[in-house]
Amino acid sequence: MTERASTRDHARVAVTVDLLIFTVRQGALHVLLIERGHAPFEGQVALPGGYVRTGEHLDAAALRELREETGIDGSRLHLEQLRTYGDPDRDPRGRVITVAYLALGPDMPAAQAGTDARHAEWTPVKAILEGRINLAFDHEVILREGLERARFQLEYTTVAAAFCTEPFTIAELRHIYEVVWGLTLDASNFRRKVTGAHGFLIPTGKHRTQEIGRPAALYRRGPAQLLSPPLLRSSDVHRSSPNLLVLH
Amino acid sequence: MTERASTRDHARVAVTVDLLIFTVRQGALHVLLIERGHAPFEGQVALPGGYVRTGEHLDAAALRELREETGIDGSRLHLEQLRTYGDPDRDPRGRVITVAYLALGPDMPAAQAGTDARHAEWTPVKAILEGRINLAFDHEVILREGLERARFQLEYTTVAAAFCTEPFTIAELRHIYEVVWGLTLDASNFRRKVTGAHGFLIPTGKHRTQEIGRPAALYRRGPAQLLSPPLLRSSDVHRSSPNLLVLH
DNA sequence: ACAAAAGTGTTCCGCCTACACCCATGC
DNA sequence: GCATGGGTGTAGGCGGAACACTTTTGT
């Protein structure tokens, strides 16, 4: 943070926030995309986002854009900064840097069309990774980096619970891990690990009866942020595990 | 990344990069600080950094400021984005957001005064954490977050080697862990872990004779970025471990 | 010979994996 | 009863912590 009165080459640039919002629905990882209504990249899909306003916090801008473009209330989501992307050529309109946010949330009631009437749609991440859908700008890079971060965070933090609607069962939580990692985990050992991790889960005492089988105990998120010991994706993989998602 | 032709409240803001550069010297963790030559915060110490120029990559701006303000060639450092700080009130001059970078490097030959003649000085991190030195702007927040990140990264990545000048001994590498974590580790088990981690260390075949004791084998960094299994700071703590650094 | 630091061997214990088994429900 | 998923028990094995021990140097 230097003041260089002499060399005043410092540009004033436009700053946007972009949101990479993941959820698990229908057994697959989905990301929320909007269809662009204007140039550049008109008609293409992109991550929701928009310009930061004068005097607005970055986090506040992220929450506002989330609400405006998708109708989602961000207070129930896990939201954190991913990275700032500042390639001078990343936006054809000129110098625009973007602060990308990673958001994890439960399957939303319905992604409402935004105030400015563009669709907001849940899209399987797999379709983008396999090249069947192209994203505007450098948004595919953001998605890949965010996906790797999310997978990593599941190992060392308790964010997986952010994907579940409270109260939730342990099987639902395990399903999150299985879908995001593309693995099948041993149900018994998974249970022991997460119930043993201090502050991860709080039993509600209630149970939910599924269509079939024994009713499952319901839990809420505990106060713990970090998960110790970590839940490594390399270990405890169940036999016959199909790779649901293409890695890298 | 939305174009909102209607509501053009989006501000064009100044963007800076700030550098949080850690090194280990004289048995303690140090951070590189400069003394500010102008208002605001004139005379106070701050992280090195400066404005991003027109058409300049963020990473390039970080490397340039590093060279200009401290005389350090960044190509030998580990450099990565930490986080972007965008509180509208963080700079009294107006809206300035900063992209903070975390850099880890070996003890530098000497922190040269920068081109604009301000001092650049290695300062013990402890002195800042204990409140004996106050940093300008929100730089203490950046330092605390970066320190936590560095400590975390030592567990799961191979960045600790970035603190060492190649070639280095295992004892030197262990010393890095001990200083950053503020613990004493068991030398034998540490050796086995790091030599066993695939791609962490490459033996050079050479040895270095210290002033006393058996000569130590010399290593270079291997290609591995991630460390598996992780080297957890909670475990393998040697008896009688003084906490060299105040946590949080 | 002794001190000091590098490096190896070995025991013990805890945890984690794998899998068998029991429980609670709907049909 | 039987199928299905929730939940518990347990044996075996792997790996890590602790620490004794050997090696290689300088004085």
UniProtKB/TrEMBL annotation, chains A, B:
<dbReference type="InterPro" id="IPR054105">
    <property type="entry name" value="WHD_NrtR"/>
</dbReference>
<dbReference type="Pfam" id="PF00293">
    <property type="entry name" value="NUDIX"/>
</dbReference>
<feature type="domain" description="Nudix hydrolase">
    <location>
        <begin position="10"/>
        <end position="147"/>
    </location>
</feature>
<keyword id="KW-0378">Hydrolase</keyword>
<protein>
    <submittedName>
        <fullName>NUDIX domain-containing protein</fullName>
    </submittedName>
</protein>
<dbReference type="Pfam" id="PF21906">
    <property type="entry name" value="WHD_NrtR"/>
</dbReference>
<dbReference type="InterPro" id="IPR000086">
    <property type="entry name" value="NUDIX_hydrolase_dom"/>
</dbReference>
<dbReference type="InterPro" id="IPR020084">
    <property type="entry name" value="NUDIX_hydrolase_CS"/>
</dbReference>
<dbReference type="InterPro" id="IPR015797">
    <property type="entry name" value="NUDIX_hydrolase-like_dom_sf"/>
</dbReference>
<dbReference type="InterPro" id="IPR036388">
    <property type="entry name" value="WH-like_DNA-bd_sf"/>
</dbReference>
<dbReference type="InterPro" id="IPR036390">
    <property type="entry name" value="WH_DNA-bd_sf"/>
</dbReference>
